């Protein structure tokens, strides 16, 4: 082996040993201790034990305005710094002093996540697909699927909600949280107590927390009860959102308590008197009334004849000739109909238009006969 080769091998070994002497693994968002060693034109050099001095730009010194960098740090001072960027091509690391508190927040959040702890977050804005929250000075995201309501709404802004941490990524400034997971844990803790305090037919007050095609979920002291769409109103309801809104406070009646499945069934319509009971004695078969077209189908139309009461007008009862209900009637239109069948106990009322003229003729004929009889009687009296 020549002297040149030996010297090259020796230098290579020296560089290897030198590199190994720097025992560090700095990553973005880590906190490191360092010493202020020099002020430059727009930055400060910090010794953190790396190959080269780390750089701390003046803009990363403080969130508070300052006149000169010496107001914030001094030569020889030892401080804790936040790694803003990892090594560049020259092996220099970029630091931040003003983000130290944020780094501590990330550390705290990671601890909360590891221990599966529930924390409190404040909703600050609505965004597509969820809400933005503030927690420990950081901004996080709660997807709509992880919200109790299932969708964001204006009433949530400013609310403080319990959340579980799903994901933390300081490098990408990513914080994903879940309200539903936090509430699921809380629900298991309080459900037995809440259900033991409830009784069937009891009136309770709750908050609308979720809307679905089949009904609404009402928060009763921390436990969700189901309000089926059929129990929202005595009138036909196409979707719960036609009557209820998220965050709304409502009084409901407890219909059923299933302690085995931990389910509570509620009713809103039963807070009012059954309109089918009210109409008994107010309508009779053969009576001519007015009603408003509420819904049109292929087989007929549903007509509002009393608050909370709909009657069916079959297509076959609209005319003596075959008709298309959509062409015959208009939603919201007021029409005159004949009550052909009246069975309020079964919640059924059948209407007819085609028999209307016949009924009117019979009524007119009856009146004419009565009038003629009255005239005849008057003549006899004379």
Short description:
With 382 residues, the chain is an alpha+beta fold. Helices cover 23% and strands 36% of the residues.
Total individual domains:
4
- Portion of residues in beta strands equals 35-45%
CATH architecture of the largest domain: Beta Barrel
Point out poorly predicted stretches. none
CATH superfamily of the largest domain: Nucleic acid-binding proteins
CATH class of the largest domain: Mainly Beta
Strand segment tally: 20
Q: How many DSSP helices?
A: 6
> Which structural class do the helices and strands define?
alpha+beta
Gross geometry:
elongated
CATH topology of the largest domain: OB fold (Dihydrolipoamide Acetyltransferase, E2P)
Q: Could you tell me the radius of gyration in angstroms?
A: 38 Å
Spatial order of strands in the largest sheet: 1-2-3-5-4
How do the helices and strands follow one another from N- to C-terminus?
Answer: HEEEEEHEEEEEHEEEEEHEEEHEEH
How are the SSEs ordered, and which strands pair?
Elements: H1 3-21, E1 31-39, E2 43-47, E3 54-57, E4 78-85, E5 94-96, H2 100-114, E6 119-127, E7 130-135, E8 138-143, E9 160-169, E10 174-178, H3 179-197, E11 203-212, E12 215-220, E13 223-228, E14 249-258, E15 263-267, H4 275-278, E16 288-296, E17 300-306, E18 309-314, H5 325-328, E19 334-343, E20 348-352, H6 356-381
Parallel strand pairs: 3-5
Antiparallel strand pairs: 1-2, 1-4, 2-3, 4-5, 6-7, 6-9, 7-8, 9-10, 11-12, 11-14, 12-13, 14-15, 16-17, 16-19, 17-18, 19-20
